[in-house]
């Protein structure tokens, strides 16, 4: 096992303004990086496109020139075939000056009836004939001419000469087509590597420029710790995906910092709230040890109950923060309110219930009963002579009291954890300041809301719980 070496403390850095930081340089040759993958991918795509385009160009060029040669040869073969059929066939067939063409008339038994000068004294240049029902047949052949073989597009056309069946062979040279293909290959082959190198260089450079803000974000996030959540990643001036990523990352860091600050405050407040009842318990235990006759069991039990209540509240809040919610089932909010009121006997102020009809909602019976209990506990601490619970259609539950009410500045603050107004502290030192916070968190977990609007008919406290209705 390796030893744990102490870390060298990092010197605090001065916060920099997002968007004005100097972006770091990327590594020159990162392994398996996006930069490498983008460059290789771009080069591969361009290479495939160039090869496909070059192959198509060569095929189109060769096909076009071959078709042109075939049409020329067929026209000449048909002209000679007509002359033979008309009895005007001459022994030496003329070809246009300056063209490397072939003409030959061959009988079915292999005798040469006529030929062009470049085929004088030679045997039949081919033996294929048109198929039945076809006027001509064509093939690409290579025929020896001098010391080399030359490519031709050879066309065969059937005819008769003085009643004897014969075949006219006319050929047009394909040397122009082969030379054109050679020129295309000569021009393309040296240019493809150069073009691929240019694509690779441009892609490598542009990818580096595009990823430099991402590297700046990564470097900044790597240096952010839970003790340094005030730092933010740089936001590029461009309005592209990287800028949106930076903005989203900063928003996430804002939420993380807010969560950490909330957690620290929660731990500090919980420690503060637990200190007093634990200190009181210790004092009672010490008195019991030193003077058993002075022990007051009721006071000791009150402190134990208070610590237990606070521990239960903290555990419930932790579960709510972690997203642990029980299954939601359809339930009648009016029946739940009636059962809760019946269960709470011996209240300081009587509770009136106004729930004339069925109000169906989806939720956890245990948690919604906890919400109503917390609201009634709060109302009992502040009411002068009356507390009313009302359940109406639309999933609305109201708890009203005739106490001093809540001022406008505190209507949201009272739902903050460990918040107790001055009056609450003076009237009931046993409150934990978590009841309304727990009630709102449960309402939010159920997809509802819990607010404290001003009463419509005079002073007093009013809390309104709204829940989605069951369908």
Summary?
By secondary structure, this protein is of the alpha+beta class.
Write the topology of this structure.
Elements: H1 34-85, E1 92-93, E2 101-107, E3 112-116, E4 136-145, E5 148-161, E6 164-173, H2 175-223, H3 241-290, H4 297-321, E7 329-332, H5 333-343, E8 351-354, E9 360-363, H6 365-382, E10 387-392, E11 396-401, H7 422-427, H8 435-445, E12 449-451, E13 461-466
Parallel strand pairs: 1-3, 8-10
Antiparallel strand pairs: 2-3, 2-6, 4-5, 5-6, 7-9, 10-11, 11-13, 12-13
Helix pairs in contact: 1-2, 3-4, 4-8, 6-8
How widely separated are the two ends? 60 Å
Strands, count: 13
Low-confidence stretches: 1-23, 423-430
Instruction: Give the domain tally.
Output: 3
Going by helix content, strand content and strand pairing, the class is alpha+beta
- Percentage of residues in DSSP E strands: 15-25%
Q: How would you spell out the order of helices and strands?
A: HEEEEEEHHHEHEEHEEHHEE
Q: What is the makeup of the main sheet?
A: 6 strands, mixed
**Main sheet strand line-up:** 1-3-2-6-5-4
Explain what you see:
This protein is α+β, with helices and mostly antiparallel strands and 471 residues long. The protein folds into three domains: 21-222, no CATH class; 241-316, Helix Hairpins, CATH 1.10.287; 326-466, Histidine kinase-like ATPase, C-terminal domain (Heat Shock Protein 90), CATH 3.30.565. Helices cover 47% and strands 17% of the residues. It has helices at residues 34-85, 175-223, 241-290, 297-321, 333-343, 365-382, 422-427, 435-445; strands spanning 92-93, 101-107, 112-116, 136-145, 148-161, 164-173, 329-332, 351-354, 360-363, 387-392, 396-401, 449-451, 461-466. The strands form three sheets. The chain has a six-stranded mixed beta sheet with strand order 1-3-2-6-5-4, covered by helices on one side. The longest helix has 52 residues, at 34-85.
